[in-house]
Design a protein that fits this description.
32% of the residues lie in helices and 31% in strands. It is of the alpha/beta class. The protein starts with a helix and ends in an 8-residue tail after the last helix. The structure holds S-adenosylmethionine (SAM).
C-alpha cells in the first residue's frame, strides 16, 4: 500500500480497505511513519466496496480474497469499481483443479488461508462471469499438496459498457 502510494505519486491516490479495526489501526501507524499523504484507509468489506463505480485503476490484494465466503460478490464489486481498462493484480491461495472443495478443506483451516481457496478454473470462471478479461493464474509457491500461492491477473475491457450491453437480455453473448 505504502509502496503503491509512492509509486502513483502526488497526483495519484491509494485506498487501503479492511474490515478489521485492528488492521486499520496498524495500517494507520505505518502510513504515518511513512509520511505519505495520498493514502486513504477505508473500513469496509471486499464484498461491498465503499467506493463509487469506475473509480479504481488498479486493484491489488494479498491473501484476502481466499478468505471470503462470498466470492461472486467480491468479483462483482471488483468489476464495478474498476475503471474501463483498469486492472486486477493480486496474490491469493489457489487450488489445482484436481482438488475437490472437501480436499481443500482437509489441507488447512480457514485461518491458514487455504480451506476456502478457489481452484484455477473457478477463479477464471468467476472473473469471466463479471466481464473481466484475459484472466491468468500463475502459481508461485506450493503451500500444501495441490494448493499454491498464486498471482492472479485480469482486466476490465476499455469498452466495458458495450460489452455489458451485448450481454443484456436478447443480446448476442448470453
Ligand atoms: C491474511 S491477512 C492479509 C493482510 C495483508 N493483505 C497482508 O498481506 O499482510 C487478511 C486481512 O484481510 C482482512 N479481511 C478478511 N476478510 C475481509 C473482507 N471480507 N473484507 C475486508 N477485509 C477482509 C482481515 O481483516 C485481514 O486484515
Amino acid at each position: 500500500m505504502i509502496l503503491s502510494a509512492r509509486r502513483v505519486g502526488p497526483d495519484g491516490r491509494v485506498f487501503g480497505l479492511d474490515f478489521l479495526e485492528e488492521t486499520l489501526a496498524l495500517a494507520a501507524r505505518n502510513v504515518e511513519d511513512a509520511e505519505v499523504d495520498n493514502l486513504v484507509l477505508l473500513k469496509g468489506t471486499i464484498e461491498s466496496i465503499p467506493l463509487p463505480a469506475d473509480t479504481v485503476d488498479v486493484i491489488i490484494s494479498n491473501c484476502v480474497i481466499n478468505l471470503s465466503l462470498n466470492k461472486p460478490a467480491v468479483f462483482a464489486e471488483t468489476a464495478r469499481v474498476l475503471t474501463p481498462g483498469g486492472r486486477l493484480g493480486i496474490s491469493d491461495v489457489v487450488a489445482e483443479d484436481r482438488l475437490s472443495p472437501e480436499e481443500r478443506a482437509e489441507r488447512g483451516g480457514h485461518s491458514q488461508c487455504i480451506a476456502s481457496a478457489l481452484s484455477v478454473s473457478e477463479y477464471k470462471e468467476l472473473l469471466d462471469a463479471v466481464g473481466l478479461k484475459d484472466a491468468e493464474v500463475v502459481f508461485t509457491q506450493e503451500a500444501a499438496d495441490g494448493l499454491h500461492a498464486a498471482i492472479v491477473r485480469a482486466h476490465k475491457p476499455v469498452d466495458s459498457t458495450a460489452a455489458a450491453s451485448e450481454c443484456a437480455p436478447g443480446g448476442s453473448c448470453c
